[in-house]
Design a protein that fits this description.
Elements (H helix, E strand, L loop, with lengths): L5 H6 L9 E2 L3 E5 L7 E7 L7 H7 L1 H19 L4 E3 L15 E5 L10
Antiparallel strand pairs: 1-2, 2-3, 3-5, 4-5
Helix pairs in contact: 2-3
The structure holds guanosine-5'-monophosphate.
Length: 115
């Protein structure tokens, strides 16, 4: 049996993290190593999709739900303006292979932010 992802373990309460918002099929936490003044992760509750390409192919409605939750967080915490980053593949900086969106806001001009 494959080990659950770090995000599934957070969702199940095995690893401590505050779930700051959720919808039926997605949830959000603060990134443990923030790269911007506002840095949330929005994550489908299922770990079935490794990256955004798989998610878009397999469940576009769930991708839209992730984007909607990102927008709601940005409305609340960043005046509705934000950067949405899906690192896709190790060469692009992806380290957790349970698809997640980085929601970044605040003082973003200087850097190209991934994570
Ligand atoms: P990736 O590099 O795959 O695009 O993003 C994974 C993100 O998950 C990283 O920005 C990393 O800081 C974050 N992360 C990894 N482990 C944990 C954790 O246990 N708690 C939280 N809140 N974030 C984590």
């Amino acid at each position: 049996m494959t080990e659950s992802s770090v995000f599934t373990r957070i969702l199940q309460g095995e690893i401590p993290a505050e779930i700051i918002a959720q919808t039926e099929n997605a949830f959000a936490i603060r990134d443990i190593a923030p790269q911007a003044p506002v840095h949330f992760l929005v994550i489908p509750k299922t770990e079935r999709y490794r990256d955004v390409v798989e998610l878009a192919d397999g469940d576009p409605a769930l991708l839209a739900e992730v984007v909607g939750l990102a927008r709601a967080l940005a409305d609340e915490h960043a005046g509705g303006e934000f950067r949405l980053v899906f690192n896709t593949g190790p060469g692009a900086g992806q380290t957790v292979f349970h698809v997640h969106a980085h929601v970044l806001a605040g003082q973003l001009e200087e850097k190209t932010l991934g994570a």
